[in-house]
Design goal:
The chain is mainly α. It is built from 5 helices and no strands. α2 crosses α5. The protein starts with 6 loop residues before the first helix and ends with a helix.
Length: 111
């Protein structure tokens, strides 16, 4: 991974939040976050795309959101919107293996 995207900065916050909110946020939100996570970890992903992904994942793990995550039904809609926008922007760099890893993790978490 390039020096512009330190792995620890993404890994620590991402896995902590993803595991804690997986059921509340739902598989669409977590699935998009996982795809982006695996794409940013791929050395083939260009720096500009990594920047977009890091921004989206940072928003996802941030404790302060536009819509607080504790708001019933709406709490993760802003996170989902940011993740979808990032996927639309960098989608050509999300490889089938990133999607497969995300699916495998979702299957493990949601059974």
């Amino acid at each position: 991974m390039s020096s512009t995207v330190p792995a620890d900065a993404i890994d620590d916050g991402f896995w902590s939040k993803a595991k804690n909110v997986a059921r509340k946020a739902g598989s669409p939100v977590i699935g998009n976050a996982l795809k982006l996570f695996y794409a940013v970890r791929d050395p083939d992903t260009p720096a500009w795309a990594r920047g977009v992904i890091v921004g989206a994942l940072t928003y996802f793990v941030a404790p302060v959101d536009a819509i607080p995550d504790l708001v019933p039904l709406a709490g993760y809609t802003d996170d989902w919107g940011v993740l979808v926008a990032a996927l639309a922007t960098v989608g050509m760099h999300v490889k089938p293996e990133h999607s497969q890893k995300a699916k495998e993790k979702l299957d493990a978490w949601f059974g």
